Amino acid sequence: MAVIGKKAVKKVTTPKIKQTKLLINNKWVDPVEGGSFKTYNPATGEVIAKVAEASAKDIDLAVKAARKALESGPWATMDAADRGKLMFKLADLIEKNAEELAVLESYNCGKTITDARGDLVGTINTLRYYAGWADKIEGRTVPVRGKFLSYTLRQPVGVIGQIIPWNFPLLMLAWKWGPALACGNTIVLKPAEQTPLTALRVAELAIEAGFPAGVINIVNGFGETAGNALVIHPGVDKIAFTGHVETAKIIQKKAADTLKRTTFELGGKSPNVVFADCDLEQAVEGAFHAIYFHCGQCCTAGSRLFVEQKIQKEFVERLAAKAKQRKVGDPLDESTQQGPQVSQEQLDKILHYVALGQREGAKLVTGGQRKGAKGYFIEPTIFDGVRDEMAIARDEIFGPVVSVLPFKDFDEVVARANDTFYGLAAGVWTKNIDKAHNYAAAVKAGTVWVNCYHIVDTTTPFGGFKMSGQGRENGEEALDHYTETKTVTVNLA
Ligand code: NAI
Ligand code: MG
Prior knowledge:
alpha/beta; binds magnesium ion
């Protein structure tokens, strides 16, 4: 969590953009059809660079390069320990350039510089964690019937198409690259069209680290064109995707033609449940962080805040007091607590839900307005007296908007918490240990936080129940999704 106000407030200078092309086969290239698109600074709405736009033709070249690297050349025969060494080297280079990357991330995505620095730590940790795995991915010997020796080999899935979103551009890159590289796969990554810049800079560092040609390819572009071309390409073995549920449905249908492996990390409408027997101070702080961290642009955002009726009034008052004090503004200013939303599109979506919530009869306690005429800023917003059937309680808003839903007892709140097609994360605040563990067992979510929120570490599996995803990222579990298991049986008779 950001610690603000302890050190001198300093203005960080805007970064120089070093790379805007496509990376194919370790060469920075212009797109075959010569396309480009603009990328923006969400704090001002101004264009900061024009970036090369990949079409299906560039995707084809990138996939061919990735396949060649997979099947021949140094990567295919490299010792697993040496793969790990390359990954450690990349992590070191990212660490060496961490401040530059954090500023660039903040500049292109709008997250506060403090949060961006935190993401850099997560990015480096993830790459190091999986670098350590590279030479520990082992098969089994199996006590098979008859005079045979059976053993398993764990081999790379192949060419991995990775499609990532704009909310954590570098961290999502690391979550996808880490296990893919550790297991010996090759990569074609499509960054989000809103935030391509840091992936390009990290790819420069990957070349510097010594990754052989074709192992890592970057294709900037849009979902319906570049993303789609990756999904339908017969040379891609797997798609790893993070983004919207509706996009995942499209991808799964299109991937069916080539029966590609898919893993999905999708959104949520995560229930955060506050019992009256909580530590009130801690729960207010936690519920605040749960929704407002990175402007609510987190798949795990605690956007359904269930508060036990007995403490509802005081809880909402305390939450609102904090919301009113939040410093919203320039993300590169170290004293800023909340930056802009990523885009005009997201700003419009959030304002649409704020209006809808009022029409549905929820009580707007604070916020709800755009802040300033430049950039995509929005006030921290609280709705009280929200009912389960309202759209603001059902849909992922992906902004700094929390719905407070009162409840009376344990069974009721668990049933209501589970009444959604999402199942990514859940929180609970109580000093009663039985209640905490019973909730953790009963709530349908891939991650449950007890008296904390948004604690995500590369060592623990992360992913969704129900329509919040398929498969797991992070932890040992992610390796299962980046290896194929081969059984080898030898006749000993
Ligand atoms: P999106 O799902 O459309 O975009 C995510 C990535 O998928 C981007 O790289 C995009 O170019 C790509 N993509 C889009 N359509 C595609 C297609 N047909 N084939 C292949 N790739 C495609 O999400 P978007 O439009 O940026 O945001 C919309 C909403 O999605 C947000 O308001 C939020 O509710 C949710 N979202 C959830 C995220 C999460 O972390 N789970 C991250 C970003 C958005
Ligand atoms: Mg979209």
